[in-house]
Amino acid sequence: MLKRILALALMGATLIAGAAQADEASVKKAVEATLPGLPIDGVRKTPYLGLYEIRTGGELIYTDENVTYFINGNIIDAKTRRDLTEERKNKLAQINFSDLPLELAVKQVRGNGKRVIATFEDPNCGYCKKLAKDLRTLNDVTIYTFLYPILSPDSTQKSKAIWCSADRAKAWTEWMMNSTSPGTKVDCDTSPIEKVIALGQKLNIHGTPTIFLSNGERIPGAVSLARLEQSMAAASK
To answer: How far apart are CA 194 and CA 160, in angstroms?
Structure first.
């Protein structure tokens, strides 16, 4: 959809009057006129190439001050090889960790539990199972796991069965580590699965696992244990 809208816009792109004095507000107005079908969440002038960043539905595209061209892709720093677009998207995706409804998550505490992370995981997610094995080696950490069944109807059944277990943390760990069935009870009154799905959609979580650090930083997808430890250390500062 985004590519189609951009293609149409390029054919009929218009210039901003007095573009030499373009600012974020005038660029935003011109973008909205040029891309009437695209919701614009914000426009910001970047520190590189005179480009303006256009935020739309969690994605970033770029334009010049005249809105003559659109760039749909990532900007890489040639010297440092840093993906500036990805860094910016991760920054925008940060949350206020204290706003998470942790009572809806499976809680596990290791050691003193001082370090804290939250994860959104599907019980049928292979990368989540790898993450579970890595997390078993973490010390002094509290892990809040939101059961986020987005892969299949069976994921929902397993998530509900895990939540309805007498020991949720044990049921989750045994399923993820050893594929031990969590049972068939899926009708306990306290199942929060629908609320977690709504929460994940609100936070624009489209894949599992998704990890949130204590400072609100989002880590999408599977990461190495070394990187997770490094990110957790940085978040604690």
So the answer is: 10
Q: Does domain 2-92 have CATH number 3.10.450.70?
A: yes
Supply the CATH classification number for the domain 97-236: 3.40.30.10
pLDDT in tens, the chain (237 residues): 565 555 544 444 434 334 434 689 999 999 999 999 889 999 999 999 999 999 998 899 999 999 999 999 999 999 999 999 988 988 888 999 999 999 999 999 999 999 999 999 999 999 999 999 999 999 999 999 999 999 999 999 999 999 999 999 999 999 999 999 988 887 787 789 999 999 999 998 999 999 999 999 999 888 899 999 999 998 887
What are the boundaries of each domain within the chain?
2-92, 97-236
Comparing CA positions, the residue from 201, 211, 194 lying closest to residue 143 is 211
